[in-house]
Amino acid sequence: MCAFVFWEGGYQVRELENDPNFNAGRGSVLTSQGTVEMEACIMDGTTMKCGAVSGLSTVVNAISLARLVMEKTPHIYLAFDGAEAFAREQGVETVDPNHFVTPENIERLEQAKEANRVQIDFTQPAKGDIRKENAEANGGDSQIGTVGCVALDSHGNLASATSTGGLVNKMVGRIGDTPVIGAGTYANSYCAVSATGKGEAIIKATVAREVAALMEYKGLSLKEAAAYVIEEKVAKGNAGLVAVSANGEVTMPFNTTGMFRACATEDGHSEISIWN
Amino acid sequence: MGGWAIAVHGGAGIDPSLPLQRQEEACQALLSALHLGISALRSASSAVDVVELVVLESSKGRQKRSSGYWPCNCFRPNCCPCGSNSLDPCLWILWIRFGSVRELELNPLFNSGCGSALTAQGTVEMDASIMDGSTRKCGAVSGLSTVKNPISLARLVMDKSPHAYLAFDGAEAFARQHGAEIVDTSFFIIEENVIRLKQAKEAKSIQFDYRLPSKGWDTCASEAEQMVQMNGVPISLYSPETVGCVVVDALGRCAAATSTGGLINKMCGRIGDSPLIGAGTYACNICAVSATGEGEAIIRATLARDVAALMEFKGISLKEAVDCAIHERLEDGKGGLIAVSNDGHVICGFNTTGMFRALATEDGHMEVGLWD
Q1: Mean pLDDT, to the nearest integer, of B257-262?
Q2: How far is CA B314 from the centre of its chain?
Q3: Contact criterion met (CB < 8 Å) for B279 and A181
Q4: Which residues of B touch A205 (CB under 8 A)?
Q5: Alpha carbon distance B318, B324 (integer Å)
Q6: Catalytic residue flag (residue B353)
Q7: Closest residue of B to A50, CA-based?
Q8: Which residues of B touch A52 (CB under 8 A)?
Q9: Which ipTM did the prediction report?
Q10: C-alpha–C-alpha distance, residues B99 and B116, integer Å
């Protein structure tokens, strides 16, 4: 899994979608049929407006389409053929579906089929990866992941954005937590949250909304709320999140072996890490 | 309190000029669905089985029912032809004649499934979700066009797949793999909705919870000026669409289910709140909630989850949580919900003009209503 917190927000998720090392946009993991079905979501914590898309196979930047749904339609969530049609109406960049498929992900799908499982991103590195031994020693770490970003701007506005290819070997048509407002993505006046991990677990725990609700209804701090959700509400090995609060607090808890993450704040603090 | 409790809804937002006969029909349909659930609860069915059954039956259309009589302890004399004008609870067993031949697509409560709203392209895309509060397992489906019983497919996703949510072609393929009943998509398309779609396009609006039969359009002309806004687009007042059920069973287990055709004239591929866990449907060990109304507003408010979160994190009662969610979290005029708690309480709340609903508890209380 992978997530970033930036002080700027906005275009960061697009950058990561274009990077084949992450499970979003190009580099998305494959369905059981070897196809790509991408989903993304964006939420503005000030207006509570949101946009989400699922089942994309030709749109280069799913997060930008999600933003267009938010800004240019009376709806919040468009999926599959309807979302693709909307993309063409809006003139967003579309390419052949093969653009998104990488050799590493073809291999990951084969591994998953051999093991007969559905994987969070993947649990084994591609063959030939020099970090293979380390990964196995760590119990099969994820090495790429869903991309997410939460941000607090200089006007005090909070926003959250998440983008993913989903789970390796997922059933065609499977939707995960990323585009479900309140599960993988949420923002309001208290905080912005982007979660990642096993979508089904994040959906039933309404992870992103839970963090905000604990702050709002129970008066917990961002760190306390996020830690509680990750430790108590989601089974171990299933989730991580990044979150930022209205007063600039940042937290990045996870109950998996590791999570790619980075954050920075205006006062100059920054960090980038993978493990605990 | 304790004991089982059940509530069923048929949509929020009712045209104040809805003809009385349609109001009565709505009451009868709601009671029918309610009694189905009550029978199942009395047979010790589990909460999740009951919600699926009630929503399933409520979604079937084009069915002819034979004459039947249902007992009703009616606490809402205005909605039943019992003739009582008293505000005191009606203590009389009232037998309601359930019409001998009734096409359920005209019945507001039965308009998910057959009678589903049409997309801008004149197609049908149905959504449903179900959640079992005792395990928090859930199943959801979207974009169905040939599956006869969307709620049962949602249950299959929950029980028989490694996932929680399947949509469009993938969901249709899953349905066929598991032998779900498949029909031609034309089964779900009724003439009344073809007419409504045309009206919606002419009014350039997206309609939710329509109340108005296509023939009676002119009787509501006077209401046309007071258009309710949705997503900045004027909407007319319509007949309900979404069907939902919440149950707490005799063992205190809660479950919720919701099923819909969505909004008339919606964009193809548009998903609303009904299949989104935490928005239109939610259940945990404390309560179960099913919401209805303008999907986008319900999603922004994460309405169903918020009721539970308010109870869990603020320690308030079901009633207080529902009041807060409806009046402080949800944009005005945009929806309603039904909810049960694990100690046998059941409630309905809405900020629209009316909501089709019926409630019952094990101690014999029963009510059916449309208005405040």
Answers
A1: 89
A2: 28
A3: yes
A4: 136
A5: 10
A6: no
A7: B300
A8: 271
A9: 0.88
A10: 22
Is residue A143 over pLDDT 60? Answer: no
Query: Rounded CA gap, B38 and B50, in Å?
Result: 9
Q: Among the residues of A25-170, which ranges form H helices?
A: 62-72, 80-90, 103-115, 132-137
Which residue from B202, B283, B197 is spatially nearest to B241, judged by alpha carbons? Answer: B197
pLDDT reported for residue B307: 98
CA–CA separation, B297 and B292 (whole Å): 10
**B267, A50: Cβ pair inside 8 Å?**
no
DSSP category for residue A232: I
Q: What is the pTM of this model?
A: 0.85
CA atoms within 13 A on the CB side of A99: 18
Report chain A's mean pLDDT, rounded to a whole number: 85
pLDDT at B203 over 80: no
CA-wise closest residue to B116 among B164, B150, B166:
B150
For chain B, give the longest Cα–Cα distance: 55
Residue-level pLDDT at B261: 84
How confident is the model over B102-148, as pLDDT tens digits?
Answer: 222 334 344 466 667 889 999 999 999 999 999 999 999 999 999 98
For the four alpha carbons of B324, B330, B335 and B339, in that order, the dihedral sign comes to negative
> Based on the number of CB atoms within 10 Å of its own CB, is A227 exposed (0-12), middle (13-18) or buried (19 or more)?
middle
- A252 contacts: CB under 8 Å, gap ≥ 6: A3, A5, A240, A241, A242, A243, A259, A261, A263
Q: Is B285 exposed, middle or buried (0-12, 13-18, 19+ CB in 10 A)?
A: middle
In chain B, what percentage of residues exceed pLDDT 70?
74
What span, in angstroms and rounded, lies between the C-alpha atoms of A246 and A248? 6
Residue with the bigger pLDDT between A210 and A167: it is A210
Quote the mean pLDDT of chain B: 78
Per-residue pLDDT of B51-80, as tens digits, reads 998 888 876 642 323 222 222 333 233 333
Q: How far is the CA of A160 from the CAs of B15, B231, B309, B326, in angstroms? A: 38, 21, 21, 25
pLDDT at B84: 35
Angle at A268 between CA A143 and CA A197, to 5 degrees: 25
User: Above 60 in pLDDT, residue A276?
Assistant: yes
CB atoms within 10 A of CB B155: 24
The region that residue B122 occupies, defined by phi over 0 for left and psi between -120 and 50 for alpha, beta otherwise, is left
The nearest CA of chain B is from the CA of A132 a distance in Å of: 27
| A242 backbone dihedrals φ, ψ, rounded to 5° | -120, 145
Residue type at B51 in one-letter notation = V
User: In this predicted model, what pLDDT tens digit does every residue of A91-114 receive, in sequence order?
Assistant: 999 999 999 999 999 998 999 898
Sheet holding B287-293, edge to edge: B281-283, B287-293, B335-341, B346-350
Number of helices (H), then strands (E), in chain A: 8, 14
Domains of chain A (ranges plus CATH)?
2-34+140-273 (3.60.20.30)
Give dist(CA A101, CA A122) in Å, integer.
15
Q: Which of A31, A58, A123, A146 is catalytic?
A: A146
